[in-house]
Design brief:
Helices cover 26% and strands 16% of the residues. The chain is of the alpha/beta class. α14 links the parallel β11 and β12. Bound molecules: CIS-heme D hydroxychlorin gamma-spirolactone (HDD). This is Catalase.
């Protein structure tokens, strides 16, 4: 990469280009460049004789294969990433001197990795878990990493407890069960005995922990950081990513089924959206608190188990990120990318949040093991797009060839270069916060209210969201074997809501709480997903058609849906083309066998005369399942016979019509945009 060229949104792509190798059409060689003549038979003494050590190609090929795996991340092992760009809407000069937040005409390349936390690299993606949302901005001043989650608070207040938290949530060590799940004794034992987790647990058991798509979840920097402007004035800041499509989730039963039907559901969704040009977009927001107001709130701004209610501290939307390019190679990019909350640029600084401070140690430490040495910054995906020079040398896998005699500072032989530069020339100067205190191992009193915001979260939920939380507690605690742990959790969450604790206590056969209750009446409407944006865009509809379907009518519906931005996939009992009575043909994308109702946002039973009894049963099963997951259901013509009309006909989100197809398409499109119809009565 020519480091002297001006930086733009393509800078990272251009830099990566010099590392890309296209093997197609090339001759096979060894890693030494020697052309290979035989790649199927190892060198042997006679056709049935012993293999010879002398076969260097065999040895090299096998050795490389034997070393292909690297340690997976201790947390966030299962992840998927994409490239994109970020643009700021207006200059943020008033608050920060960070260059990438100054000029709306500048686009900064980004790389974003989404992840689950607890599961191994091969685990299913729709499990109940926090999602990682880590963004690397390749700025002209160096890489800035915003290493966040889709939940704005954390389980613990001090990083020293992180190994304990993770040991508790990971599969239990004696039998390595369960994979990628928090529904087991050690996790809940940790929760009950580390009650600072209360607030985050409420989020974890809410619909936030089962997102519909990476494209439909928020991201949060979690910690309070500092923005510092040119004059040295600082503001406390919390970072938010707001998905343009709104925040939407799966239903728990659906999430579990998808985990089996398509363990790659979220990566497939992201990959296909980007391949199809439906680029995921997120707006960047900041909440700002002036330093003078540090103590004006009923929470401590340094406490990572607290959020700043958006109604009290509004989120100022300052820019947009668009993910527009899939990776070329998952290992080289997604697996080898190294994030670190300590990768900052001038104008962005830290606070004394004890969780953040501990993270500043952990990330480099883990990369050293995972990426095998101190040179991981040289891996193509991790390289800044601006020049970098220092006196660090050598180490495993060093690629840079530093020319010259001098590798120390201060020196005279190289005129004391590379030289530190002043703040005015872009040198990073740490914010000069005044700090005083004794060395103690304790926690501030201001960190000790663990339940008020958990109660606020509960108060902010709509009825269906509350039901989901009760069901989630009943599920999770229902899997816990220890009666004592179950009871401890009931008693703990009585401090959030007696209604909640009583409901799940009854479901798991524990004693309803004897005391508890919260005085908190505050709620924050921004926390409820019911208040999110509802758009049809990118929603996926499974269209079930049989032979002799009403060709033009059905096509018109499909086209009207597509015009709304909805994705249409055709399901039938066999692949190939399905024929309409008027000769129209529609390509079938899936059979009942190769897909499942849970993989769609809505089902449209379009009809078809020539269908077997088996077809009808399969279609009915798809519709029934979608119905039980509160999804929009449309039925026209013979499709009406595949659903239980007497049960479903007047249900919210069920659209039945065989006269006016444009009215049908419009109503069905609206039903799809609503995401889910929670006010639907289910037949139990
Ligand atoms: Fe962490 C990875 C987010 C607390 C230690 N963390 C990791 C990733 C994300 C987060 C998104 C995946 C990055 C990637 O995609 O490669 N972590 C968070 C957030 C936290 C948090 C938002 C709380 C606010 N983490 C946290 C603590 C510690 C760690 C308190 C340890 C003191 N996290 C790690 C790690 C990981 C990691 C062990 C594993 C792989 C990696 O760093 O690169 O260092």
């Amino acid at each position: 990469m020519n480091n002297k060229g001006k930086m733009n949104e393509n800078s990272k792509n251009e830099q990566l280009e010099q590392f890309r190798v296209r093997d197609e059409g090339e001759k096979l060689t060894t890693n030494q460049g020697l052309k290979v003549s035989e790649d199927e038979f190892s060198l042997k003494a006679g056709e049935r004789g012993p293999t010879l050590m002398e076969d260097f190609h065999f040895r090299e090929k096998m050795t490389h294969f034997d070393h292909e795996r690297i340690p997976e991340r201790i947390v966030h092992a299962r992840g998927f990433a994409a490239h994109g760009e970020f643009e700021v809407y207006e200059s943020m000069k008033k608050y920060t001197k960070a260059k990438f937040l100054q000029d709306p005409s500048v686009k900064t390349p980004v790389f974003v990795r989404f992840s689950t936390v607890a599961g191994s690299r091969g685990s299913a993606e729709t499990v109940r878990d926090v999602r990682g949302f880590a963004t690397k901005f390749y700025t002209e001043e160096g890489n800035y990493d915003l290493v966040g989650n889709n939940i704005p608070v954390f389980f613990i207040q001090d990083a020293i407890k992180f190994p304990d938290l993770i040991h508790a949530v990971k599969p239990e060590p004696h039998n390595e069960i369960p994979q990628a799940a928090s529904a087991h004794d050690t996790f809940w034992d940790f929760v009950a005995n580390n009650q600072e987790s209360a607030h985050m647990v409420m989020w974890h058991l809410s619909d936030r922990a089962i997102p519909r798509s990476f494209r439909m979840m928020e991201g949060f920097g979690v910690h309070t950081f500092r923005l510092v402007n040119e004059e040295g004035k600082a503001h406390f800041v919390k970072f938010h990513w707001k998905p343009v499509l709104g925040v939407h989730s799966l239903v728990w039963d659906e999430a579990q089924k998808i985990a089996g039907k398509d363990p790659d559901f979220h990566r497939r969704d992201l990959w296909e959206s980007i391949e199809g040009g439906l680029f995921p977009e997120y707006e960047l927001g900041v909440q700002l608190i002036a330093e003078e107001d540090e103590f004006s709130f009923d929470f401590d701004v340094l406490d990572p188990t607290k959020l700043w209610p958006e109604e009290d501290v509004p989120v100022k939307i300052i820019g947009k990120m668009t993910l527009n390019r899939n990776v070329d190679n998952v290992f080289a990019e997604t697996e080898q990318v190294a994030f670190h909350p300590g990768h900052v640029v001038p104008g962005i600084d830290f606070t004394n949040d004890p969780l953040l401070q501990g993270r500043l140690f952990s990330y480099t430490d883990t990369q050293l093991l995972r990426l095998g040495g101190p040179n991981f910054h040289e891996l193509p995906i991790n390289r800044p797009v601006c020049p970098f020079h220092n006196n660090q040398r050598d180490g495993f896998g060093r690629q840079t060839i530093n020319v010259g005699q001098v590798s120390y500072h201060k020196n005279s032989l190289a005129s004391n270069t590379p030289a530190p530069v002043s703040e005015d020339e872009g040198g990073y100067v740490h914010y000069q916060e005044k700090v005083e205190g004794r060395k103690v191992q304790s926690r501030s009193e201001s960190f000790k209210d663990h339940f008020s915001q958990a109660a606020m979260f509960w108060n902010s939920m709509s009825e269906p969201e509350k039901e989901h939380i009760i069901d989630a507690f009943s599920f999770e605690l229902g899997k816990v074997k220890s009666k004592s742990v179950q009871q401890q959790v009931v008693d703990m969450f009585a401090n959030v809501s007696v209604e909640l604790a009583t409901a799940f206590a009854l479901a798991i056969g524990a004693m309803p709480p004897q005391k508890g209750g919260s005085q908190v009446t505050k709620s924050s409407p921004a926390l409820s997903q019911l208040n999110t944006k509802k758009l049809p865009n990118t929603r996926k509809v499974g269209v079930i058609i049989g032979t002799d379907f009403k060709g033009e009518d059905v096509l018109n519906v499909c086209n009207a849906l597509i015009a709304e931005g909805i994705q249409v996939e055709v399901i039938s009992d066999k692949l190939g083309n399905q024929k309409a009575f008027d000769g129209t043909e529609l390509k079938v994308d899936h059979t009942f066998l190769t897909c499942d109702s849970v993989l769609f946002d809505a089902i449209y039973a379009a009809g078809g005369k020539g269908v077997s009894q088996k077809f009808k049963e399969e279609a009915a099963y798809f519709i029934q399942e979608a119905f039980s997951h509160y999804k929009a259901i449309g039925a026209t013509f013979e499709g009406k016979n595949w659903l239980q009309e007497e049960v479903m006909a007047n249900s919210p989100g069920v659209v039945i019509e065989d006269q006016d197809m444009s009215v049908f398409a419009q109503n069905f499109g609206q039903a799809i945009s609503a995401h889910r119809h929670w006010n639907r009565q289910l037949v139990k």
